Amino acid sequence: MSKDRLVSRVGLLSSVALLAAGSGTQAQEPNPQLTGFISETLEAGTNLGLEPGNDEFGWRSITTLGLGFLSETETQTFALDASVAGRSRIFGDDSDKSDDFKALPTVELFYGIEGTRTGFELDGYYRLDEVDEDTFAQEYLISGKVIRRLTPGLSVNARAGYRSDGAENDGELDTTESLFFNLGAEYEGKLWVLGAAAGVRVFEDVVRPSGEITALRETARGNVSGFIGLDTDRDADVSVVGGLATDYALNSTNVLSASLDQRIAVNQDGDDELRSTARLALTRDLTNRSSAEIGASFFLRNGLNDSDINNLPGTSFDLGYNYALSERADLVMGYEYTYEEEETGPSTTSHIVSVGISIPFGL
Q1: Which of 40, 103, 233, 317 could form a disulfide with 272 if both were Cys (CB 3.0 to 4.6 A apart)?
Q2: In sequence order, what are the beta bridge partners of 289?
Q3: Is the dihedral of CA 268, 9, 306, 165 positive or negative?
Q4: Where residue 210 falls among pLDDT bands split at 50, 70, 90?
């Protein structure tokens, strides 16, 4: 089961942005910037591998290394964000799927040139995500975009690129490759940033429509963002996807986060499915060095391509605690409960407790 935290339309520069924000520095950052983090986490609980019907207790370690590079001039920006999470085998679990070490890499890059009225952007990413102990979702993309500003707030753009979506199940990799072409426009007003794009996705023997409408509003207390569009699964079938998310500061110590999301995801059998998720979370600053979060999610899974999966429900509940041991080290603890109903056979249930230390750094 994917543990993505729902609607996130812009993931670029996560290491750079988060670590720069966490360092407490202002305005004059060094250029270029090289930042990163290393973390070590221990997980223990039942059914760490998220297998249906498995209730065995086990534990494992997860080591994560992240690096971010950012270089900016008045007209050009280059950014590279990379991380890899190394997961040990699950000790104490006798399942055949718990024996292997796993490395899960993510790489994102961006290069942009900004002229007086015309700009160019090159971006790409590669991601490998774990669905369960025997299934992985893999995707990579590279694209180029030309932007033309018509007025100070209005611009039009043309984007083209290559995309590959895949899933590995029981050692067998199934991938679908495609080209895509989009024409779009964006308007940045005083209150809202609005965008729209329409185009096609070209598979080996078929062409499918694509497009989306996006909106973003930022306020002093938080922001609201949303999108709705068309996406295509690995069998070239089109589905409606979308999302709505908000982060709102209730007061100086409490932030409420809520989101609704519908997207195409890989399930435990390596097939594509349509997953609809609702999530609500509250983050509270306990002291100037510690914070806590409580969150809950509810989701429905529907099969694609004549699948018999129909509105299979699932829920998750999580607690988190963060304590700054020093300016350069954080203690992170958490608990997560997951329940997922299966089409046939036993359901998937897990209880996981984790404790770890994260150390950011900059060069």
Answers
A1: 233
A2: none
A3: negative
A4: very high
